[in-house]
Amino acid sequence: MAKIKHHNFLNTVHEVFSDAKEAGVLHLYAGGTSFSGRTIKVNGKELYHFGTTGYLGLEQDLRLKRAAMQAIEHYGTQFPLSKSYISNPLYGELEQLVTRMYNAPIIITKNSTLGHLGVIPSAVDDQDVIVLDHQVHWSVQNAAKMLKTRSVPIEMIRHNNLGMLEEKIKKYRDSKRHIWYMADGIYSMYGDYAPVNDLMVLASKYPQLRLYFDDVHGMSWVGKNGTGYVLDQLGKLPENVLLFGTLSKTFGASGAVLACSNPEMYDKIKTFGGPLTFSAQLEPASVAAAIASAKIHLSPEIYQFQEDLRQRIDYFNNCLMETDLPLIDHNESPVFYIGTGMPKTGYNFVNRLMQEGFYVNLGIFPAVPVKNTGVRITISRHNQPEEIKGLVEAMTHHFPKALEETHTSAERVFHAFKLNPKVREEPKKPKNMIVEVKESINQMDKATWNRYLGGQGVYDWEGLKFLETVFQGNEKKEHNWLFRYVIIKDDFGVPVLVTFMTLSLWKDDMLADAQVSKGVEEERKSNPYHLSSTVLSIGCLFTEGDHLYWDASHDRADQALFVFLELMEKKELEFGAKMTVLRDFPEKTDWNKPLYGSGFLRVRMPRSSTVDLQGIHTMEAYMAQLSARNRRHFRKDIQAYFKTSQVKVISKGTPIQLLQFKSLFGEVQSRNLGLNTFPFPDVLFEQMNESILWEFIVLTPIGESERILGVMFCYNNSGQVYVPAFVGMDYGFLDKYGTYRQLLYRTIERALELGAPKIDFGMTAAFEKRKLGARVHEKYAYLQTRDNFILELLGVMEGQH
Predict the structure, then answer these.
(1) For residue 500, what are the CA distances in angstroms to 58, 453, 486, 583?
(2) What's the pLDDT at 801?
(3) Residue 588 and residue 408: Cα distance in Å, rounded?
(4) So what's the pLDDT on residue 5?
(5) What is the pLDDT of residues 735-764, one digit of tens each?
(6) Of 17, 267, 461, 462, which one's alpha carbon is 20 to 30 angstroms from that of 326?
(7) CA distance 560 to 565
(8) At 633, which CATH number?
């Protein structure tokens, strides 16, 4: 398979958000002329509010409101001057109060995002390394990535995996000054905690370890003076810890706070912290509201507020314990997450709850993996017991209905989150559909298979028989593929969907930039299977083209689609695959919306190329129909090399030639990190050499027929399509003989000789193929992963090599 280009992250997020917006659960506007915190008006309807991050309800406290209004009257709506020059008159009092809260030196920032952008580049030296928890907030990751320009290495570990963290510490302890681990105190989606005490034990074992916590979701509702979860665990702030809290969210005002007890570090950040220096300072109203809130935090009243919230959290937990709802993490934070698995189930569930009078948040990519979509519920002091109970009753009633309407089940949701289902469900057979899954192409009727999927690529019946022979029974695991053949029929036995899938080992960086692959390959010199995963894919790594027959006109087409997706999910679970890939779709497809709703992300693949030879019988006739520009290209860049080289078609090579073929393909494969797959087994070339379906177009210098410059490996698919599957070349003579362009030309020439009506030219070098008259097609793949770790890790690695 040709390289799948690393997808544009922002484009992917845009498509996911657009889908959610269309479903009516994202980018909403609150209505009404006032706001109490207990309810929120959406689309003209008053809903109980279970989506706030103001857990203590201080944003509605009269003391904060009055302080803000008085500040505007005295000082105006803003104080338009950098804080580096002079702070507005209220700042001094706020800083004194917050310093008392933390009992440590503090820095007030405009917000936590700008705070991270200012603090991280100041705190981390060029001799340091950063290790990110892969669920740490985006604002921390974004700020950390800025240090790539200073060549600071950035690593990533799986969520709360201290074993992986210790491995990274050992990796860098002899070469780096400090090792920064960056994590959230309370994670904003699932409400789970950082293992603070275990991290401090690790820090005592490795003095180079520095801890950077973003605890904005732990602020106010827990801890002495409401200073948050992390400081509550620590007791006092050590010098090897930087701690971010917030004056927004639960604090009820605006801004963020950094606490730092290391005097040298504090002075470095305070003196010049990038955005801390150049950004506008907090508005007088925000500072005044924060002062009023800080006074509450320094009074016994904060503990009564915390207890009021605790009672509500405990009540909600108790109510949930009486249900079979998939609560993803049971904890004592005010953040709860009910999994729905597929996005479309989440959309349906959120809309149902809004119709019942409850507002909740949707948790969606990139905050969570697409397949881990769910409902994020937050509890605040505004919520009363009767509406908390009402929400649980509404969820219990509507959750199974949302599952049924979106063609899924509770068991599938639990599996998506790696949880044991509370209730085992009997497998349901699809109504009016017959599903057949075969383990070998030999179990499929040859005529039937070729009727639906023959005549393209290397996956007609004979081609798949060849591939099964090659990719089974080999020594290395990457050379052994499991094949499955799927036919979904209506109750009359008429096929609605036909495809084949493979389970095989992929290099994770096949989705990444070539520079990332270059760095990963260095690691693979000592660990060949570093960053590799078992993938379930339609088609296989050897084939390209439309691997899926689907009768969109059939009255059960949509049902067949969802039956197939459920089958893929079951096979992924059965085989233990880490990713599912549906590939080679055109830009516009009826599958796009169902696949997004089912937890797949769309990524752009390299463009494919085909040549239509219908009605053309000679090379002269073919060249005549090219544009004048392309004919000039032929004369200058291809025909000019005919005098120095010659071509021949070999159906069976000698042992020496076969060794050269393997070597030349290996040279292309090892150089082309944009096609970063595991090498094919040697048996492939031997089986090609014995098969009547394969032949080799070989380019040699004139007078040196034994020295091979390049070879095109070509498959003849039932006389319906000619397939140059891949190429081997001697890079030392690539420019001297125009090897690649010559082989493209000779492939067209050979297809005409055989009377083939079409050439499937594959997915690489579309620009070169277009100049020889190929038609170029946009292609997309859809990916579904168990988690975001690999995609985020590869994103972190970009620009580091």
Answers:
(1) 58, 10, 6, 12
(2) 52
(3) 25
(4) 43
(5) 999 999 999 999 999 999 999 999 999 877
(6) 17
(7) 9
(8) 3.40.630.30
Domain check: are 289 and 321 in the same one? no
Residues 734 and 622 in one domain: yes
Residue 424: predicted pLDDT: 66
pLDDT of 472 > 90? The answer is yes
Q: How far from 580 is each of 141, 469, 553, 573, CA to CA, in Å?
A: 26, 24, 26, 10
Continuous H helices in 375-477 = 385-405, 410-416, 446-453, 461-470
Task: Count up the domains in the chain and report the number.
Answer: 3
Cα 257 to Cα 269: distance, rounded to the nearest angstrom: 13
292 and 332 belong to one structural domain? no
Bridge partners, residue 489, by sequence: 434, 495
> Could you give phi then psi for residue 45, rounded to 5 degrees?
-115, 135
Q: What are 140's two structure tokens? A: 């921390």
DSSP 141-197: HHHHHGGGGGT--EEEE-TT-HHHHHHHHHHHTTT-S-EEEEEESB-TTT--B--HH
d(CA 794, CA 801): 12
Tokens of 276: 């801390």
Question: Which of 214, 209, 187 shows the shortest CA–CA distance to 198?
Answer: 209
Place of tokens 């020594």: 475
Report the SS3 class of residue 508: helix
- Please give the residue that has the higher pLDDT: either 200 or 515: 200
What are 339's strand-pairing partners?
Answer: 374
Burial of 670 (0-12, 13-18, 19+ CB in 10 A): exposed
Over residues 162-189, the mean pLDDT reads 96
d(CA 320, CA 330): 10
Cβ of 378: how many Cβ atoms within 10 Å? 21
Beta-carbon count within 10 A of 440 CB: 13
pLDDT at res. 273: 60
- Domain hosting 400: range is 32-59+302-416
Alpha-carbon distance 708 to 698, whole Å? 7
Contact 337, 376 (CB under 8 A): yes
- What amino acid is encoded at 228 in this protein? G
Question: Model-level pTM greater than 0.90?
Answer: no
Contact 354, 47 (CB under 8 A): yes
Q: Specify whether 243 is located in the same domain as 325.
A: no
**DSSP code, position 46:** E
Per mean pLDDT, which range of 172-186, 357-371, 506-520, 701-715 is the poorest?
Answer: 506-520
Among the listed residues 361, 338, 364, 343, the one whose alpha carbon sits nearest the alpha carbon of residue 419: 338
* pLDDT tens per residue across span 298-331: 999 999 999 999 999 999 999 999 999 999 999 8
Contact between 53 and 335 (Cβ < 8 Å):
no
Q: What does the pLDDT read at residue 390?
A: 98
Question: Is residue 215 over pLDDT 70?
Answer: yes
